[in-house]
Hints:
Shape: globular
Structural class: alpha/beta
Number of helices: 16
Helix content: 25-40%
CATH architecture of the largest domain: Alpha-Beta Barrel
Number of domains: 2
Bound molecules: N-(iminomethyl)-L-glutamic acid, fe (iii) ion
Strand content: 15-25%
CATH superfamily of the largest domain: Metal-dependent hydrolases
CATH class of the largest domain: Alpha Beta
Amino acid sequence: MKADLIIKNIGNLVTMRGDNKPRTKEKMRDIQILKNAYVAIKDGKFVDLGEGFNDKLVDSNTQIHDAKGLTVTPGLIDAHTHLVHGGSRENEFALKLSGVSYLDILKSGGGILSTVKATKNASFDELYEKAKKSLDIMLSYGTTTVEAKSGYGLELDTEIKQLKVAQKLNQDHPVDIVSTFLGAHAIPLEYKDNPDEYVDEVINMLPKIKELKLAEFCDVFCEDNVFSVEQTRRILNEAKKLGFKIKIHADEIVSLGGAELSAQLGAISADHLMAASEKGMEDMAKNNVIANILPGTSFNLMKNYANARKMIDLGVAVSLSTDYNPGSCPTENIQLIMQLGSLGLKMTPSEVLTAVTINAAFAIDKADEVGSIEVGKKADLVIFDAPNIDYIMYHFGINHVYRVYKEGKLVV
Ligand code: NIG
Ligand code: FE
């Protein structure tokens, strides 16, 4: 067998190879870094890797690229985004700075509800072009796989429009997209006085989304004055019956018990968790729920950071994602999130890299395909213009990407 491409002269090769399960505790820290290494790629997959070089894989058709002694990691995975939406919300920026809270802006009909209007009014092509621009930015920072949620329609047609945009981008764009149905993202104003009716509506949308194969996951924004724990449980139990995998926006602002619920329901991940209780974290550890922490949201809402250190101590597998959305976290930049992972959450650079590669792959149930550099997986990788991994977190606020490869193709 000969390789299509060999990337040689990799100063530090962060493989993330290891057990085929989410990494916890010291497994998040003890990561394998090969020195002066190479990777070999054929048909878009890794076929070999190691220290030094492997002549046996080379023939006249093999391309050889030089990584110049730099640092290589698996393609980064952003396991929580609200990629497809209309408009932007800089009109709320001054309000936020003057101290009006995120939930108060939502209560008065702004926030998510204002993006719902903009998304309803946008055409398919407008949503596609805007989301494509964001995907290009994500890729330029090293993100090669993205989870994308609906949730700015709050009625079937617009939810479907959003999910179809994500589906088409998944076909057209190098970045892979995994879709999540988030019909339960806010209570529409017309249901303000009888939110349970909207819960019924969401439950009614589920079979159609399933039939059209538009989402693998179902998610709910479980929050004070949004969806209660009981409403979340109802929706997600129905989703499970139809074969959706489960995620929860849990304990973001108020400690409602979303973390506990994620453990009871067997969610793949609970996300946010800034207000999660210790009991909730323990339950998550026992039931193997991944904590997908979104420190960009803490930063941008000017609120506290989730207690990642405690979660790691308790044995919870932690992943990190952007939460890219027009309200609580308008950034596509996963490297900023990694830097906040260290500077805000106090995670070490090895923990951070684990969190945006293999653990993020588990958070979207794609760890059999992506998340590590190992034989048989998609050849997604990033060459960072950095002498070691600490440097990526230390020198913050800039883009360290030198090259990005997606399924063996140079894309940045
Ligand atoms: O994850 N918290 C709920 N949903 C998003 C924000 C969406 C928005 O504000 O438009 C989040 O923070
Ligand atoms: Fe979110």
